[in-house]
Specification:
There is one protein chain. By secondary structure, the protein is of the alpha/beta class. It has a domain of 207 residues: NAD(P)-binding Rossmann-like Domain (Rossmann fold). The protein is 42% helix and 15% strand. It has 11 helices and 13 strands. Helix 5 runs parallel beside helix 6, helix 7 runs parallel beside helix 9 and helix 7 crosses helix 11.
Length: 343
């Protein structure tokens, strides 16, 4: 039985990747940050199904705790390590730049050091990001495109990307970077713009919310489904040699287009509900991101399964169901009737 170790297992990608690996017969080990409240909501269904048989094992750890990560690598002796954990909200990275960079950089370096010092051959996957490119040019981006980070988050990802390549070249470690463009799902964090939109659409559709306030409506992103993208992560570590890979849909849509599609799906006009505020603009905006995953399609055999339209529908459907539950709570005076994140 193969063993995988996943940092960030409680996140969106952590859920979809864990589910995929468990279905492939892996034993999955993952890290959970110790907090005052339980933060495993996304993976609770997997815990319920797999933890009693020890196919899914969780540990308290932190990216900034090098000793803990080293001990876990030595204890578990995984075949594959997927480093997904990060402070991944770009806007928040401007407000918490030290934590964002320390957690991202130290975690990657600590894992690579642990792998370098073990006798077992371990394959390492680093979650790089399209934010590293900066989005200044309206052109398709591939593995050879230049980086121009425009946020602390992106700068941290550039460091982790390069240090992964450095360890690969210097120590002959199977260490690969997956440069994933924006990938969404019903499990996306509620402060990310796509989920903020679909959650608002669900609530507006049921009369629980009147307006949606967004920032730059013209920012353009290459949006795909997280469930498709974690398959690429796994394929990257099954390839015969370590390398760097762009994973993207090859389509780009503005925030306005995403919102239009979400509102149209429930028969509403987004112009009647959307307002904008400079509060939600970034200090240094990434205007345009479009990925070229030709290499992954040709050499890995990766294929995109979920269209942009289907992704939007999937997310809106889920948030309509969530809004129905909220409506019951509101009607029973168990939930305050308005909702919108202040950050």
């Amino acid at each position: 039985m193969k063993k995988a170790f996943i940092t960030g297992i409680t996140g969106q990608d952590g859920y979809y990747l864990s589910k995929l690996l468990l279905e492939k017969g892996y034993q999955v080990h993952g890290t959970v940050r110790r907090t005052s409240s339980i933060n495993t909501k996304r993976i609770d269904s997997l815990i319920s199904k797999y933890s009693s048989s020890q196919k899914l094992v969780l540990y308290y750890s932190d990216l900034q705790d090098a000793s803990s990560l080293n001990n876990l690598i030595s204890l578990i002796e995984p075949d594959e390590v997927y480093n997904l954990a990060a402070q991944s909200h770009v806007a928040v990275s401007f407000k918490n730049p030290v934590f964002t960079t320390q957690a991202g950089n130290q975690g990657t370096l600590s894992l690579l050091e642990a792998i370098k010092n073990t006798k077992k051959e371990i394959k390492f996957y680093q979650a790089s990001s399209s934010e590293m490119f900066g989005g200044e040019l309206k052109s398709s981006l591939n593995e050879n495109s230049s980086f121009n980070p425009k946020s602390p988050y992106a700068a941290s990802k550039v460091f982790s990307h390069h240090i992964t390549k450095l360890y690969r070249d210097s120590y002959n470690i199977f260490a690969s970077n997956g440069i994933l463009f924006n990938h969404e799902s019903p499990l996306r964090g509620e402060t990310f713009v796509t989920r903020k939109i679909t959650k608002a659409v669900g609530r507006i559709h049921l009369g629980l919310q009147k307006k949606l306030t967004l920032g730059n409506l013209e920012a353009s992103r290459d949006w795909g489904f997280a469930g498709d993208y974690v398959e690429a992560m796994w394929m990257i570590l099954q390839h015969k040699t370590p390398d760097d890979w762009v994973i993207a849909t090859g389509e780009t849509h503005t925030v306005k287009e995403f919102a239009n599609a979400a509102f149209k799906y429930v028969g509403l006009d987004s112009d009647d509900y959307i307002t904008t505020s400079e509060k939600y603009y970034r200090p240094n905006e990434v205007d345009y991101l479009l990925g070229d995953s030709s290499k992954a399609k040709k050499e890995l055999g990766w294929t995109l399964k979920t269209s942009f339209t289907d992704l939007v529908k999937m997310m809106v459907d889920e948030d309509i169901e969530n809004a129905k539950k909220d409506k019951v709570l509101i009607e029973n005076n168990l939930l305050y009737p308005t909702w919108e994140y202040p950050i």
